[in-house]
Write a structure and sequence with these properties.
With 376 residues, the chain is of the alpha/beta class. It contains 13 helices and 13 strands. It has helices at 13-22, 31-44, 55-65, 82-89, 135-145, 199-206, 212-216, 236-247, 249-272, 299-311, 327-332, 342-346, 360-373; strands at 48-52, 73-77, 94-98, 120-126, 148-152, 160-161, 164-165, 172-176, 189-193, 285-286, 292-295, 333-335, 349-352. The strands form 3 sheets. The protein has an 8-stranded mixed β-sheet with strand order 1-9-8-5-4-2-3-12, sandwiched between helices. Helix 5 (135-145) links the parallel strand 4 (120-126) and strand 5 (148-152). Helix 9 (249-272) packs parallel to helix 13. The site of pyridoxal-5'-phosphate has 14 residues, from helix 3 and helix 4.
Length: 376
Amino acid sequence: MIRFNEPPYTGKEMKNIQKAIENMHICGDGEFTKKCSEYLERTTGTAKCLLTTSCTHALEMAALLCDLKEGDEVILPSYTFVSTADAFVLRGAKAVFVDIRPDTMNIDETLIEDAITEKTKAIFVVHYAGVACEMDTIMEIADRHHLMVVEDAAQAIMCTYKGKPLGTIGDFGCYSFHETKNFSMGEGGALLIRNPEYIENAEILREKGTDRSKYFRGQVDKYRWMNLGSSYLPSDINAAYLYTQLEMAEQINEVRLARWKQYYELLSPLKEAGKIELPIIPEGCVHNGHMFYIKTKDMEERTSLIDFMKANDVLTVFHYVPLHSAPAGIKFGRFHGEDKYTTRESERLLRLPMFYQLKEEEVDYIAGKVKEFYGA
Ligand SMILES: *Cc1c(COP(=O)(O)O)cnc(C)c1O
């Protein structure tokens, strides 16, 4: 059976985990947490990166730092993971969903402005499959209306938009190191902060509302309860696992991109024949091979293909059920405008196995089976 996902593993993780244990520092902010955040700051150029317990928590921190409250509205796509909305719904803010673009499955930037009301405080964008949203337009709209921009870049580490790393363009960027993502620590994430003015508050928020980070740097002689907070820092054991992967990030990325291109080339004849659609990467976007998906004619065809692949020992999966049609989405949000593509495109999208350990021969086999299904 070819799994849909396997957690990324390089074989060298144990050495760093052992080191974390020998350091006698397995709680947060030890050697490996520092190394991971420094690596992410260096490679993205962001003002500050804080390692967190998940991307969900990084998004929650972003919602708190944006000061989102009861009655505020946040614009986002409906085609996303629940965490994008949970983050601010927890603060009492309302979700205003707008339609996606069928080419990238990202928020349609041309529909954002019409959804803005006097209650709108922020735009939460999602870079689906590591392919950038149209950030120039989005940042321009946000500037004009004084809105905060949060990038859910859970899938988009090592991706760029017109040369800029995703996660560093909006006010805050959020990465995920869940085991389904390109680099992992089991459960984990990171918050990227563009404007240094937010760093102090973010550190306080992450350390239970205290100025403990300053205390550890010797900047204050005792730490105190300063503001709202929670515990968003991961164990250094998990960070040790992640750091091993970040040290090999280029290699992991290259392997994923090679598998992605292999799928694309092998399945191109089906696309030429008009049987399926393949991902579209707009000019100016560099992705990271996070995901390979195809689009079938409709949901019925997709279900048959999933069954066919399963019968041939390959697990394929569909993705998000649009949030606006889910019970909590109805309760906490509304769809602005027409749902032209969100539902329709989500029902056609099918993800093929994609992970670091996936072999070239396996991609050959999987693509061969998809072709067989379509009689090619
Ligand atoms: C994976 C993912 C998340 C959640 O990440 P966690 O680290 O599991 O909290 C949020 N948004 C998107 C778009 C994701 O793909």
